[in-house]
Amino acid sequence: MMLQWSVKKIELSEGVMQNKKNIVLIGMPGAGKSTVGIVLAKKMSMDFIDTDVLIQLKEGRSLQEIVDHDGYLVLRSIEEQVLLGLLCTNSVIATGGSAVYSDLAMRSLRNNAFCIFLDVPCEVLLSRVRNYATRGLAKRSGQSFAELFVERYDLYRKYADLIIDCSCLSQDEVCDEIEKHYFKKNTIQLQPKAQR
What we know:
7 strands
């Protein structure tokens, strides 16, 4: 039997990475989306966009001021508008923790992006987020951080093309994992194919 080589692209998550140019980071406040995003963008020669900053620039006020004056649902609505208005390529996008409440916005982002959930245990997040009451989180009045975590966790998993357990990884290790999976889409694997 004679062997002939065929070329096959490696794809992850049933082809979700093919032709996607942006990287979208999702996860809870304190997961490291902005910090990892900046390092990743620099490492991969991409632009960096922090959607919380875009919201604040658009509104001319802080996230907390929006929540205090207009309520958390208005913040979510503004966030959805900002996410739907993003027109970019070759960018690392750090979303606000509440981005996943908008199915429309998440579907729009995923049309041109590889979506990564930075999964960090609640206890670790609590040790990182010291300004919970004044951080400008889109949460119900009186809702605890643990309740918010439980409410959002399945949404993060739903929209993720890749989930990275960040509990024991440095920001550089998280970036290495993302880069490895992002570039797998461009890896070519030679496989022997039997000739008939």
